[in-house]
Amino acid sequence: MDKELFDYTAQKVEELLAAPSSSKVTLDAAQAWKDAIASGADADVATTALLDAIDQHHTTIDELIAFASGAAKDIMGEEVAAGMLAHAQEIKAQGAKYCDCAACTATHELLAKHGRPVL
Prior knowledge:
This protein is mainly alpha-helical. It has helices spanning 3-18, 24-38, 43-54, 61-69, 71-76, 78-93, 102-113.
């Protein structure tokens, strides 16, 4: 992997680790990548493992709407859930197919940069 792609990947891994919306699976995959790189593992192998893990965790816009309509109320409170639902419905009306939170955005950008665009 060339330095530019490696640096981009490292930046997106940091974004995934910092995003409050990252799932445990995403956090674990990002941390495993960092740990592998720190231990001197092959960057291509570590990156493939990361991409394989995050490629399975796309929150569709409909999943986001369902979450905001249900479980988010108990987790985040009525007001936050209502704001999330309104935002999700707005971006769906504009054609969004996936969640646009920090974790999903970083995931989609990372996958696309590595030739695995989310369709």
